[in-house]
Structures are given as C-alpha cells and as structure tokens.
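writing this on my phone so excuse typos. first protein, seq and then structure
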Amino acid sequence: QSYEGLDGKQYYQYCTAYPVGTMIAQTWNTDLAYTMGLNVGQEMEHYGISQWLAPGMNIHRNPLCGRNFEYYSEDPLVAGLIGGNEALGVQSNKGVGVTFKHFAGNDQENSRYSQNDVVSERAFREIYLKQFEIAVKMSNPMGMMSTYGIVNGVPSANDHDLQEDILRTEWGFNGLVTTDWWTKGEHYKETLAGNDIKMGTGYPERLMEALEKGLLTRKDLEI
C-alpha cells in the first residue's frame, strides 16, 4: 500500500517483520527488546505514524488464547521488563509512542466481549496487573488500551477504579486511554471511567441522551 508522507514523497509501507512478542520474551534479553523498540520507532517516525498499538502485555493464562503470540509470557515480571524496555526503545524516537494493551484481564479468546473474570484483588494485582505496572512506571507510555471484557462484574472499559484510581493515581500514568476497537460499551460510562477515545462502533445519539439526562457533563467530555 502506498501513501504520501509528511514530506510530500510517495512511500510504500513495507515494514520490517519482527519476531512475535513471545519469542522476544524467550530471550530474556532486555537490551534486545529495547533495540527492537528503537527500530520500530524509527520506522514509525519514517512513515509518519505517531502511536503503535502495542506492546501486548496480557498474561499467557491459557495456551489457547488467540492473542498469545503478541503477548510475552505467563510471568508478569518477564512481561513487564520486556514490554517496558521495548516501549523505552520506541519512545526514544521523537514524536512516537506505544499503547500498552489490553488493560486488563484479556487472557482468553472465547467470548472476549462477554467473559467475566472472577478474581481476587490480590491475584489481579500480582498476576494480571503487575506487568502493566512495571512497564508503565518504566516507560511512561503514550497510551493504554482498555479491553472488551469484564472483571468481577464490571466491564474493564467502564471501570473507573482501574483506569483512574490505579492507572493514573497509583501508577502516575498521564497518557491517553483508548477503548478497544468495536467495543459495544456505553459512551458515557467509558468517558466517566477515564477513556479518552472511543474506537469503533459509535452511538452519538446515546451520548447526547446521557448529556441531556445529566449522566455526564461537558466537563467530563473535555477532560
């Protein structure tokens, strides 16, 4: 596919095919992860792409998870250190950044829209959040992507405790949070939870209805 770059030149977007995340993690080599990120960031800058929808940071809880190839490990420390170094490499290039995903608990493929993870707070923090915490504190990423799924009855994309209290207040994240693509959640709940961008399916009339009913304010939309 060809397109016109920021400099007016025509480019063909043939990017380097890097090894999948699992293979990078198997090296246990954080310098290698940084170098790969550095090279990815250079290509992003070259092609005029500002935000990479990666690294994938979820846990290999089940070997049948369809996204495991882009996730790193069943161990949150390994995943956090590899992902964090890869992000540092990408963001060492001017004007480009990463989007860690899927935050959080996206660890199976079946029923990704409706699956409900019933998990204790300790297990959630020590297994399913720890790699995100490590990588966020290491690299201050440009973005985070919330998930389709549900944790203890609350859709992750609607979870204010997760997006605001843990991610922003506890961990100091100051970047952008986007929903996953084609999420079916209510706009106003995702807005109040801390998502800055709604991707995919849109229902602007429902957003206006929520605004008219006072379920959210103009200020909520502007934050």
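second protein below, same order as before
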Amino acid sequence: MALTADAEVRAAPERSRRPSAHGWWMLLALSFVLALLAGLWFLLPIRSVTVTGNRHLSAAQVEGLAGLTPPFYGASRPGGWLYYGGWRAAGLRTSPWIASAQITRHFPGTVELNVTERVPVARWQQPAGGVVVIAQDGTVLPGAALGGPLLVGWGPDRLPLARSAAQAFGRYTVEAVRYTPSGVVVHTAQGTVWSGTLDSLLKYSGSVKMFAGKRINIYPWGVSVQQ
C-alpha cells in the first residue's frame, strides 16, 4: 500500500533517529581524544618544583600560592604538568608579599617558580592607631617583623610623601617621619628637618649633615636653622 503524504511526514523522523556512520566516527574520535587527554594527565606528572627568590615566604607557601597543590602536586598520584599554567597561580597575584612572579615549565615534569618579594621599609601608624609594616609602594605586609622608621601623621593623606622622604634621607638613619597638613618632619640620628614639599627636602637634604643636631626648616627660598 502506498504511503500518503501525511504518512510520509510522520515516517521521516523514524529514519532520522538511526545513527549514521559519520556520527559513530565522531563519537569514536571524541572518545579517543578524551582518553588521550586523560592519559597525558598521568603520563606527564609534575615531578619536581623549584622555588627561587623567596625570602619571607617559605617554598611551601609559594607553591601553595601558585596552586601547586593536589591533584597537581603533592598527591599520591600527581599529574597535570601539561595542563598546569598561570590560571592556577591566582594566589601569587593577590599575595601582598609577591611583587612579581615568573612561572616556567621544563619538560618532562618540572615547574620553576621565580618570585620577587616586596621588602619591608617602614612602620606606619594607621589613623586608627595600629602600627603595620609597609613596603616602599605602601603595601601592608602582614607578618613582617616591626622595624624601620615610623611614619605617622594626621590630616590629608601624605603617606606617599612620607615614604619618599624616609627613602631620600635613608643615609642619615631616619627614625621617624611625621606629616601634617603643613608639611613633613623628618627625624634622623643627625638632626630634624621640616619642609612643605618633597622637592625642597631633596634640594637641601645635605643640610642635615652640615647642621648636625639642629632643627632645619626648608622653604622654597632657602634654609632656616634652629637650635
């Protein structure tokens, strides 16, 4: 019996459900690729990690920040050398101690981490009263030993100016830098210097040695020395 037009329309989907040879080949190829990728995970494990450049952070801490934790590293059956990359190292980008980092993979299973840590340069007394240790760029370094000149003040934020002043007078053993709305006072082992601008401080910084034990006020037009 011949099919009517309606019957032909209803019968067509039944034929489309049959897997074609092309579909089977695609499925087979996908299975092969997945098996190959899974095999490479275990065939190329991360066998060793080297950490250089760290001073404050331990090698284990750097590895943790770099995402070199199970299942990539430290597991009973580690793997993933081929798949490891910067996407695992978000902790290196967010750690206040890490200024920069370079990750290098060496075939067949070594990862090298070279980091540059921020260096504590001063203590900063925050507006709330607590004292923290900061790097030269102002980043607070948790866990750093208290040391360096004390930066303290009030009014508009002059912390960048205070940091620069402490660095500029470092050869005079800066003990403290106090900032106010009118300027900055630098206390050194050889004397005290006040100025309203960093440019003036730098221009007449040699006056500290010339007038040891004195109070020096530096103005754009010259220097005033007090007992």
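Helices lie at 5-16, 21-43, 59-65, 90-94, 159-168, 198-203, 207-210. thats all i got for now
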